[in-house]
What does this fold into?
Amino acid sequence: MKGKTEKINRRGFTQEGNWYRGNLHCHTNQSDGVLSPAEAAKLYRKNGYQFLCISDHERYADYREELDREDFILLPGVESSVNLVKAGDKPLTASEEHPLVSRDVWMEERQGLQAVLKTHHIHGILGTEEMVQNARKPAYARREDLPVAMYPQKWDGLAAAQRQIDEFRSRGCLVMYNHPLWSKVRPEEYLDLQGVWAVEIYNHSTVLDSGLGVDTRDWDAILETGRQIYGVASDDNHNTRPIPDSCGGWVVVKARELTHEAIVQSLLAGNFYASSGPQIYDWGIRDGVAYVDCSPSERVNFICGGPVNSGITVLKGQEGYLTEEERFAHREFLEHAEYRLSGMETYIRVECVDRNGKMAWSNAIMLGEEGGACLEDGAADRR
It folds into this structure.
């Protein structure tokens, strides 16, 4: 396969553009957070972010007019929930046949539930001008409350989530699926969803409150089917707990300028990486060799689709020892790593792990015939 793989050249990022850091999942006092929208924007701007999506529960909001600055912008968005519930003593307004209730009814009746058994938390982020113009329905108003789907005891989980995804897309939004492990859904209830741009692979809030915030297994399961889907790290901050849940997970986007249009175009193209700490400066495939340039990392994982033992973990100065204690004591740190493709890989992505165990994740480059788009030479000119 060597001769075949030597012809493979792909860029993980476009050559042109600037780097912009952002949090795509943030709650304020307009739902169950503590900070006002202005306070949240100030917090992230002061901590080196250039964009923020305020995504309150069931409340779409566009704060661009009030809060955009030359060096910091807001992406309009919302987080919508689709819920399988166990009722309490009081009867519910919703039924399996008619699950939609108003936001106010949901907020009131959820207090009397025995439990939310499962939930889909689905993100809608205002798309590009072209997406909005071509949408079947008008875009959401600058402030608009959304109905909530509440299924008592029984649901078709996949179909229920798909309806909300289709609604967001009909309004010109790109769609992200949030924290699947925390949501208690089974893989068959969401892995086959269509029209999802990204899945949240790192959710800082649920890392802190339940240890259920990291999920790359299901991301890889989708990529293994040949479908391109991107991976996002975010905070899901509420700022309600003693342990701070802001500035722990983010995306870094390469875009031509700091505008809503340019940032969303790059998000849609996968021209970004996700991180809870390390930086990825460049990565891709050159003459059949995958490579990454990154901030100092204890290890680099090249994660691949394909047969057993596809991919590799690259370590430095840690070979020849018998125990983990010895290895750890002699570890060195990488700023560049490589992996030669075998020709059997269907996709490849990179993980960089720093000295504290914090991680950065590239998006996948699809290598199989059924794979999605990847950033090749000239990709920046096509967008």
Notes: Residues 157-170 form the longest helix (14 residues). The chain has two domains: 1-17+277-383, 18-255.
